[in-house]
Amino acid sequence: MLETEGKAQLLSNPKVIVQAQSQANFVVGGEQPYPVTGATGSVGVELKKYGVILNIMPVINPNKKDTIRAELQLEVSNPDYSKPVQVGNTTVPSFVTRQIQTSVEIKSGETLVLGGLKSSTKNVNKTRIPYIGRIPILGLLFTSSSVVETQSSLFLFITMEIVK
């Protein structure tokens, strides 16, 4: 129902099979080249992953055969071009990161929901005619403002099943 109203968007619907006590990694995003300076002063490039990054390690509870204990680590990050960082002679974007790390125990077939990864941005643009726009009171007639506010929340639904 939320999708038909335009209030929710499904980013991805992957299906991953992982062996018990092995780690699964899932990334929806990209890589940003980042210059790094070595000990000798040489400059190289390191790729920094960003986007939605999920690491999960499930373990089947030996006492309860239908119960899964999982170690989860979720990171949501994106480049922030409004706050650049100077690395050597190069300017690169900084990164905004939100993380959750938890341990859960659920029955096979149940769905776990991770949330709380909210972000909001507000941009205010003011345009005015040079000189005239700076005159007190009269300048308001020659000035325009626009405000763009964006809010987003990420919810991750994880359904774990024991495959026999």
Quick recap:
Helices cover 2% and strands 65% of the residues. The chain has one helix at 2-5, and strands spanning 24-37, 43-60, 67-87, 90-107, 111-128, 143-159.
* pLDDT averaged residue by residue: 83
* N/C terminus separation: 34 Å
Q: Report the sheet with the most strands, covering strand number, pairing sense and barrel closure.
A: 4 strands, antiparallel
Low-confidence stretches: none
Shape: flat
Q: Can you list the strand order of the major beta sheet?
A: 1-2-3-4
Strand content: over 45%
Structural class call reads mainly beta
Radius of gyration (CA) equals 23 Å
What helical percentage do the residues reach?
Answer: under 10%
Please, how many helices?
1
Order of helices and strands: HEEEEEE
Count of β-strands: 6
Give a quick set of tags describing it:
mainly beta, 1 helix, about 160 residues, single chain
